[in-house]
Structure formats: structure tokens, C-alpha cells
């Protein structure tokens, strides 16, 4: 088994570690999975990251670009970027990946359910967007310590809604509410409200196992065969899973 390096020792990084070990050895030792927290100096020494065939980035937005730069320098060429809040550094990350001939899968949320939820939302906008009586809205709720507001998933949903809704020029025109309280890993609700009725689509994450499963699916996709350098979306991977096993997906 190739060595998997997880950058970020928070709840998501630990969930990916647990999922990888469970899948490989049924709770037994898995020395090929390593979790690395943020270094005191602020940037990883490439020497400390050497030997990783695949790197899962699960730290925080401002660390994505320097973490990938260090891992690329250390020799890694396959990445799963599971962190949000780094869009300002996307051109730099893409340039680095292309420079080193490396491939990454990136998504605002690696839950298979979230990907399919987004497609349900698009279908709902196609139905309710044509009815002037219904106003769309979006509510998202995450743990109190989550930094970005709205979440990356909420931002993606808002863009999907705005792209298809005839009365929204951009995502900024959509009513979006963010809650940061408690320890909930994530809830997203898309609604359509009219004078006499309200329709709501809700997705609630009970824990981070759903995210970890999607991250491992992305890792498997990168390992199966060489991929084009640059950043790849998660949706095609979900499409493969649905085609192979619609019920499990």
C-alpha cells in the first residue's frame, strides 16, 4: 500500500485516518497512514514530507498553497484537497501542480450525498424558479469553530442556484444565512417560500465519515491510473461510483 500523508490533525484529518485504517486492516496498525499537524514554524520542511505517494490536505485555507508547495518539493504528485477557504490561492496552486506534473482532486465537500444533493437543488430551481410566487433561500449551520462564513458547500450551492434562477443575477442576490454554534459538523437547507407553503431540501451531516469516504474515493481514483496535471473536480468520480453501484452511492 502506498503511503498516505494527511496534512491536518483536526477532526477531518483524523476521520480520514480512521477510515483509511479501517478499510485496510480492520482497526489494526497501518503504518502507511501518517497524520501531520501544522508545524510551529508555519511551513512544513519538505524533508519531513518525503515518501508520500498521496497527500490529503485537510488543514486550513491559508495553509493549502504552502503545504502543497512543500509536498511537491518532497516528491508527492497526487493530492486530495479537502480544505475550503483557499480560492484566492487557486491560481498559484494550479501553477504549482502543472509545474511539477501533479494532479489533485478538489471539492468544497467530499460527501457523496452533498454532490447528489446539489443536483437535486438544481432540479428544484428548475421547477420553482419559473414560479414568481416562490422565493429561494439558503441556510447553513456548522460548529462554532468553523472559520469560513458561509461554508464552501453553501457557496457552491448558492452559485448553482443563482446560475439557474431567472430572478438572481448572482449568488449575492440569494438570501443566505449562516449559523456558527455548538458542535454540528454541517447542515445545509435550501428552501422555496411562497405565501401559502414552503418547500425545503435539507442535508444534515451526522459526523465526518461521509467526508472521509469521499476523500478515499478520490484517492482511489488518483491511484488507479495517471491523471492529467492540474485540479480535477469530484463530480466525475461520483458519476463513476453511481454507474458502478447506484445503491451504495
Give the SSE map.
Elements: E1 4-7, H1 11-25, E2 33-36, E3 54-57, H2 64-74, E4 78-81, H3 90-100, E5 103-106, H4 112-128, E6 135-142, H5 152-164, E7 175-180, E8 186-193, E9 198-205, H6 209-224, E10 230-232, H7 235-244
Parallel strand pairs: 1-2, 1-3, 3-4, 4-5, 5-10, 6-7
Antiparallel strand pairs: 6-8, 8-9
Describe the structure.
By secondary structure, this protein is of the alpha/beta class. 37% of the residues lie in helices and 21% in strands. It has helices at residues 11-25, 64-74, 90-100, 112-128, 152-164, 209-224, 235-244; strands at residues 4-7, 33-36, 54-57, 78-81, 103-106, 135-142, 175-180, 186-193, 198-205, 230-232. The longest helix has 17 residues, at 112-128. The chain is elongated, with a radius of gyration of 19 Å. The mean pLDDT is 91.
- Computed CA radius of gyration, to the nearest angstrom: 19 Å
Total beta-strand segments: 10
**How does the overall form come out from the CA principal axes?**
elongated
User: How much beta, percentage-wise?
Assistant: 15-25%
- Contiguous uncertain segments of 5+ residues: none
Helix content: 25-40%
Which fold name corresponds to the CATH topology of the largest domain? Rossmann fold
Widest sheet, order of strands? 2-1-3-4-5-10
Overall number of domains: 2
Main beta sheet: strand number and arrangement?
Answer: 6 strands, parallel
Kindly provide the name of the CATH class of the largest domain: Alpha Beta
Look at the helices and sheets and give the structural class.
Answer: alpha/beta
- C-alpha termini separation: 25 Å
> What is the arithmetic mean of pLDDT?
91
> What would CATH call the homologous superfamily of the largest domain?
NAD(P)-binding Rossmann-like Domain
Q: What's the SSE pattern?
A: EHEEHEHEHEHEEEHEH
Amino acid at each position: 500500500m502506498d503511503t498516505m500523508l494527511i496534512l491536518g490533525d483536526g477532526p477531518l484529518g483524523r476521520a480520514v485516518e480512521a477510515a483509511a485504517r479501517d478499510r485496510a486492516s480492520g482497526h489494526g496498525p497501518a503504518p502507511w497512514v501518517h497524520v501531520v499537524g501544522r508545524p510551529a514554524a508555519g511551513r512544513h520542511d519538505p524533508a519531513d514530507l518525503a515518501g508520500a505517494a498521496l497527500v490529503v490536505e485537510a488543514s486550513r485555507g491559508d495553509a493549502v498553497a504552502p503545504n502543497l508547495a512543500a509536498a511537491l518539493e518532497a516528491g508527492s504528485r497526487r493530492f486530495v484537497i479537502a480544505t475550503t477557504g483557499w480560492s484566492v490561492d487557486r491560481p498559484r496552486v494550479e501553477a504549482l501542480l502543472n509545474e511539477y506534473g501533479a494532479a489533485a482532486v478538489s471539492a468544497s465537500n467530499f460527501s457523496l450525498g452533498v454532490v447528489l444533493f446539489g443536483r437535486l437543488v438544481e432540479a428544484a430551481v428548475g421547477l420553482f424558479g419559473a414560479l414568481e410566487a416562490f422565493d429561494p433561500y439558503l441556510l447553513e449551520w456548522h460548529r462554532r469553530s468553523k472559520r469560513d462564513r458561509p461554508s464552501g458547500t453553501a457557496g457552491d450551492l448558492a452559485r448553482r442556484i443563482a446560475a439557474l434562477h431567472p430572478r438572481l443575477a448572482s449568488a449575492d442576490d440569494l438570501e443566505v444565512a449562516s449559523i456558527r454554534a455548538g458542535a454540528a459538523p454541517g447542515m445545509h437547507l435550501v428552501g422555496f417560500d411562497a405565501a401559502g407553503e414552503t418547500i425545503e431540501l435539507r442535508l444534515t451531516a451526522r459526523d465526518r465519515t461521509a467526508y472521509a469516504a469521499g476523500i478515499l474515493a478520490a484517492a482511489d481514483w488518483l491511484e488507479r491510473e495517471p491523471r492529467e496535471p492540474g485540479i480535477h473536480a469530484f463530480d466525475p468520480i461520483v458519476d463513476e461510483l453511481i454507474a458502478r453501484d447506484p445503491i451504495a452511492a
